Amino acid sequence: MANTSDIRKGLCIRYNHDIFKIIEFLHVKPGKGPAFVRTKLKSVTTGKVIDNTFSAGHKIDDVRVETHSFQYLYNEGETFHFMNTDDYTQITLEKNSLDAPDLLKEGEIVKVLINSEDQSPLSVDMPAHVVLEVTHAEPGVKGNTATNATKPATVETGARINVPLFINEGDKIKIDTEKGAYMERIKE
């Protein structure tokens, strides 16, 4: 058993007969009244995100997890296939247990959280950023760059990202996986 002082991003807990992963948290100590922890929880079974507030010192039932490196192989509709990089065993996960499935490129190495009790995969932690090639982007209008203007672009995985006007088809860009936002252009 843990309590609210042990809450951190990525912690898996049992709550309301389900397992949730903490994706955001904030310790709040108001001037009046007791302290509390405001959290955003994502269900590892359904992918549903809920907001919850725990009072300070509240006991939480944490789930013991192991982290393993897996390589993303391919997807079939809503099912994504991964291979363990150590022993080459394969697992499948549903799309709703992934944080950013549209940014996954074949061959990408990700961290998979596995429940230590029953060896079931819980969720996938993406790398902090990925480098993808732009497959479609409208040409930018010359002289329209003074206002930090952006345009939509499609990357090789099919995701649509807003990019600056100077990005063209064939450019490689770095994307923040947490926000799904453009970071920078990669020069080769």
Description:
By secondary structure, this protein is mainly β. It has no helices and 16 strands. It has strands spanning 2-3, 12-15, 18-28, 36-43, 49-55, 59-62, 65-76, 79-84, 90-94, 109-115, 121-125, 129-137, 150-155, 160-164, 172-176, 181-186. 19% of the residues are buried.
In short:
The chain has no helices and 16 strands. The protein is mainly beta and 188 residues long.
Keywords summarizing the entry:
mainly beta; flat; 188 residues; 3 domains; 5-stranded antiparallel beta sheet; SH3 type barrels; OB fold (Dihydrolipoamide Acetyltransferase, E2P); 0% helix
What is the overall number of helices? 0
Alpha-carbon distance between the two ends: 50 Å
CATH architecture of the largest domain: Roll
Tertiary shape: flat
Write the H/E string, N to C: EEEEEEEEEEEEEEEE
How many runs of DSSP E, i.e. beta strands?
16
Q: Radius of gyration from the CA trace?
A: 20 Å
| Beta-strand residue fraction | over 45%
Question: What's the helix and strand layout?
Answer:
Elements: E1 2-3, E2 12-15, E3 18-28, E4 36-43, E5 49-55, E6 59-62, E7 65-76, E8 79-84, E9 90-94, E10 109-115, E11 121-125, E12 129-137, E13 150-155, E14 160-164, E15 172-176, E16 181-186
Antiparallel strand pairs: 1-6, 2-3, 2-6, 3-4, 4-5, 7-8, 7-10, 8-9, 10-11, 12-13, 12-15, 13-14, 15-16
